């Protein structure tokens, strides 16, 4: 194993570690907080988190074994199952992000009717559609024997070894990425652009009120005026940064792998195996970044994490105080005798 392979293996191990810990923490927050569970986005987050954990414990270790051994990491049946799971989880992850963006769009554009438009039942129907949509392509690939170990990506995924099926496989791959990656990207752009438009409109209204207040308050201290203007500037940038993060992480993680898969269909362009594995690692890194982008940095999840941490520390302090009390009573008993 050369230095490139060692670096890619290290990247995979790091991605697995971060993904496992962060997604497990999101699950703990969901289990701990009833307030989070009552909200419709919790179903989308749960679906995304469970998919990320499944990818972390099944697909990433097999890809790591493929990178290290430079050969299929498992038997044919297990590799087909892993390839089925890989294809399903990739589509499910993309569509779950699209569902979360639709939820944000409804919440921002229709705030007064959000609870009526996005109930738990509606969220469950969206998750059910996401599963049905994501299962369609791996099921078709399984029926056509287009699942197995792909040497370019050192992983069990979509592949076709028969030259006579090249055109059909190319059409299938193009349709899969168009109806998963491209569709999700279009939904993300449309919904978040609407959200950004509404956010900027509200910012302008707040800015007008702020400037009118500053004009009326003649005796206001200059430092207070400067803080108000700085907050005004931060308010304008906050929504743009969040939306850029949502769309940017989606593109950075998935676009290199999708483009490589499409370019691979053309034999005119040779692709390095190192780049193939790296693009696969970038796709896997979405599982590690999703908990931070969609959950752990939000106020409710941070609050839930603090409560879990306080509970754990409180239990430890009770145990240590109990042990101290027991040892103290044992020390006193012989003296009293």
From TrEMBL:
Primary localization: membrane
InterPro entries listed in its UniProt record: GPC_Orphan_Receptors, GPCR_Rhodpsn, GPCR_Rhodpsn_7TM, GPR26/78-like
Keywords per UniProt: Cell membrane, Disulfide bond, G-protein coupled receptor, Membrane, Receptor, Transducer, Transmembrane, Transmembrane helix
Keyword Lipoprotein assigned: no
UniProt subcellular location: Cell membrane
Highest taxon of the lineage: Eukaryota
Biological processes annotated in GO: adenylate cyclase-activating G protein-coupled receptor signaling pathway
Alphabetical list of Pfam families matching this protein: 7tm_1
GO molecular function, one term: G protein-coupled receptor activity
Gene3D superfamilies: Rhodopsin 7-helix transmembrane proteins
G-protein coupled receptors family 1 profile domain boundaries: 22-294
Record's bilayer topology term: Multi-pass membrane protein
GO cellular component, one term: plasma membrane
Transmembrane segments: 6-31, 43-69, 81-102, 123-149, 169-195, 243-263
Function noted in UniProt: Orphan receptor. Displays a significant level of constitutive activity. Its effect is mediated by G(s)-alpha protein that stimulate adenylate cyclase, resulting in an elevation of intracellular cAMP.
Name of the protein this chain belongs to: G-protein coupled receptor 26
């Amino acid at each position: 194993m050369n230095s490139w392979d060692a670096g890619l293996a290290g990247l995979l191990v790091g991605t697995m570690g971060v993904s496992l810990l962060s997604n497990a923490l999101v699950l703990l927050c969901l289990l701990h907080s009833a307030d989070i569970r009552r909200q419709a986005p919790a179903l989308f987050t749960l679906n995304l988190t469970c998919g990320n954990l499944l990818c972390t414990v099944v697909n990433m270790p097999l890809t790591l074994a493929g990178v290290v051994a430079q050969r299929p990491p498992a038997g044919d049946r297990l590799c087909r199952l892993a390839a089925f799971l890989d294809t399903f989880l990739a589509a499910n992850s993309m569509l779950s992000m699209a569902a979360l963006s639709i939820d944000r769009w409804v919440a921002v554009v229709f705030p007064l009717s959000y609870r009526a438009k996005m109930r738990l039942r509606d969220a469950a129907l969206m998750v059910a559609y996401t599963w049905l949509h994501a299962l369609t392509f791996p099921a078709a690939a399984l029926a056509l024997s287009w699942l197995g170990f792909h040497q370019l990506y050192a992983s069990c995924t979509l592949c076709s070894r028969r030259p006579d099926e090249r055109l059909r496989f190319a059409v299938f791959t193009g349709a899969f990425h168009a109806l998963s990656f491209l569709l999700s990207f279009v939904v993300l752009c449309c919904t978040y652009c609407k959200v950004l438009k509404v956010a900027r409109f509200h910012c302008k209204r707040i800015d007008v009120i702020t400037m009118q207040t500053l004009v009326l308050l003649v005796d206001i201290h200059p430092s207070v005026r400067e803080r108000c203007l700085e907050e005004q500037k931060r308010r304008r940038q906050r929504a743009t940064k969040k939306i850029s993060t949502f769309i940017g992480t989606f593109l950075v993680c998935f676009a290199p792998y999708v483009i490589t898969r499409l370019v691979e269909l053309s034999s005119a362009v040779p692709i390095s195996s190192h780049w193939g594995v790296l693009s696969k690692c970038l796709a896997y890194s979405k599982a590690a970044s999703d908990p931070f982008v969609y959950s752990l940095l939000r106020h409710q999840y941070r609050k839930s994490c603090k409560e879990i941490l306080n509970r754990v520390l409180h239990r430890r302090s009770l145990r240590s105080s109990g042990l101290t009390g027991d040892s103290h009573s044992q020390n006193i008993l012989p003296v009293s005798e």
